[in-house]
């Protein structure tokens, strides 16, 4: 008897899970709460509760050569680093190629996943879903949770005493979509991760002044590395990985700092990470 697998979410992990199940002779059913595939990479102009949210200009920070599925290279005419719309287009080509769409139930929310009373003997799960106001129950032999981890924003206001008296506007990067509406403003971007850096650069084009606040510093890398190759193709070679594994940690640390500081001296900007 064919094993049935429930997959929650039709983003990048959900789509590859569907195909992997089919490759293994399993019967997948994917539940997607929205009306399309893509998950995080499906841009929408408005923030939706319970869904990941990205800003309009998001571009991948890993190259297409290192990010494509192992059995399905990206089209040659795609750029090295894809805009979110291009990555979504790739997912749709992938879905069409392997005929995955028929295994996805759109606009269906998973309400609960529980072990059945005979779980110790069968290992089966009961999945309750809701579509157009109607609940449904089904039994599966396995469940893959592919709902991502960028759904909820973390805004620790308790660490910002006086924020309740602040007369300006504050928001999490999850609420940010475009630089429109920030013209002529003085803006503080807290943090220096990928989103913070992207947004700070984008806001500089319209805002009066942009400040970036970082507690521990950060290595700032360009997407393009030696000889114009994508950074991850240069960094993640078998040779360089072997070298990093066999050399003393102090030598690796010196090599890494030398490499990342070739673009500019991080010490001049107070950006050298405290944890290196």
UniProtKB/TrEMBL annotation:
Domain of life assignment: Eukaryota
Pfam families per the record? FMO-like
Q: Which UniProt keywords apply?
A: Endoplasmic reticulum, FAD, Flavoprotein, Isopeptide bond, Magnesium, Membrane, Microsome, Monooxygenase, NADP, Oxidoreductase, Transmembrane, Transmembrane helix, Ubl conjugation
The subcellular location is: Endoplasmic reticulum membrane; Microsome membrane
Q: What is its EC number?
A: 1.-.-.-
- GO cellular component labels: endoplasmic reticulum membrane
A single GO molecular-function term is: flavin adenine dinucleotide binding
Q: What topology does the record note for this protein and the membrane? A: Single-pass membrane protein
Q: Which cofactor does it need?
A: FAD; Mg(2+)
InterPro entries in the record? FAD/NAD-bd_sf (IPR036188), Flavin_mOase (IPR000960), Flavin_mOase-like (IPR020946), Flavin_mOase_2 (IPR002254), FMO-like (IPR050346)
Per its record, the protein catalyses: N,N-dimethylaniline + NADPH + O2 + H(+) = N,N-dimethylaniline N-oxide + NADP(+) + H2O; trimethylamine + NADPH + O2 = trimethylamine N-oxide + NADP(+) + H2O; hypotaurine + NADH + O2 + H(+) = taurine + NAD(+) + H2O; hypotaurine + NADPH + O2 + H(+) = taurine + NADP(+) + H2O
UniProt cross-references to PANTHER family, sorted A to Z: DIMETHYLANILINE MONOOXYGENASE
Q: Which family does it belong to?
A: Belongs to the FMO family.
Role, per record: Broad spectrum monooxygenase that catalyzes the oxygenation of a wide variety of nitrogen- and sulfur-containing compounds including xenobiotics. Catalyzes the S-oxygenation of hypotaurine to produce taurine, an organic osmolyte involved in cell volume regulation as well as a variety of cytoprotective and developmental processes.
- In its UniProt entry, what is this protein called? Flavin-containing monooxygenase
Annotated organism of origin: Ornithorhynchus anatinus
Taxon lineage = Eukaryota, Metazoa, Chordata, Craniata, Vertebrata
């Amino acid at each position: 008897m064919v094993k049935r697998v429930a997959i929650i979410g039709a983003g990048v992990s959900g789509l590859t899970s569907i195909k992997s199940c089919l490759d293994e002779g399993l019967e997948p059913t994917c539940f997607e709460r929205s009306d399309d595939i893509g998950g995080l990479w499906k841009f929408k102009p408005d923030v939706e509760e319970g869904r990941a949210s990205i800003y309009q200009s998001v571009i991948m920070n890993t190259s297409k050569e290192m990010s494509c599925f192992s059995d399905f290279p990206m089209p040659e005419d795609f750029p090295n680093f894809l805009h979110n719309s291009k990555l979504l287009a790739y997912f749709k080509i992938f879905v069409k190629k392997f005929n995955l769409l028929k295994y996805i139930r759109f606009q269906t929310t998973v309400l609960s996943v529980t072990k059945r009373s005979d779980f110790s003997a069968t290992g089966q799960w009961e999945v309750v879903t809701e579509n157009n106001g109607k609940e449904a129950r089904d039994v599966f032999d396995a469940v893959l949770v592919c709902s991502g981890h960028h759904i909820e924003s973390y805004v620790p206001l308790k660490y910002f005493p006086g924020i309740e008296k602040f007369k300006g506007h504050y928001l999490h990067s999850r609420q940010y979509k475009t630089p429109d509406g920030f013209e002529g403003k003085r803006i503080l971007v807290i943090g220096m991760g990928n989103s913070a850096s992207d947004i700070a650069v984008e806001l500089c084009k319209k805002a009066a002044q942009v400040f970036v606040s970082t507690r521990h510093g950060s290595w700032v890398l360009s997407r393009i590395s030696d000889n114009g190759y994508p950074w991850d193709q240069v960094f993640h070679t078998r040779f360089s990985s072997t070298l990093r594994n066999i050399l003393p940690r102090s030598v690796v640390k010196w090599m890494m700092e030398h490499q990342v500081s070739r673009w500019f001296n991080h010490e001049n900007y107070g950006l050298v990470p405290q944890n290196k």
